Amino acid sequence: MGLTPGDNAGESSANELRERIWSVISFDRHEAGSVTYDEASRKIEELERAHVAGLCIVTDDAAARAHRA
């Protein structure tokens, strides 16, 4: 199902990226939380320079579940 000109799904998605609901996780730990997607992206770049393995941007909820296991 595609978007029609009147749909605001794209706008909603863009707004969600600006919300502080994102986390950065690695293989070993929860690296950052409650950040915007742009902040998470910058954190990934910083951690990559430090050679941290297994980096991923996920929602805060997913991060909490991932590190409980």
Structure description:
The protein starts with 8 loop residues before the first helix and ends with a helix. Helix content is 43%, strand content 20%. The protein has 3 helices and 3 strands, in the order αββαβα. The protein has one domain. A hairpin with a 4-residue loop joins strand 1 and strand 2. The chain is an alpha+beta fold and 69 residues long. A 3-stranded antiparallel sheet has the order 2-1-3.
Number of domains: 1
How does the overall form come out from the CA principal axes?
globular
Oligomeric status: single chain
Q: Helix count? A: 3
Largest sheet: 3 strands, antiparallel
What is the total tally of β strands? 3
Helix/strand class: alpha+beta
Give the SSE map.
Elements: H1 9-18, E1 22-25, E2 30-35, H2 37-49, E3 56-59, H3 60-66
Antiparallel strand pairs: 1-2, 1-3
Name the descriptors.
alpha+beta; 3 helices; globular; 3-stranded antiparallel beta sheet
Summary of the model, kept short:
This protein has 69 residues and is of the alpha+beta class. A 3-stranded antiparallel β-sheet has the order 2-1-3.
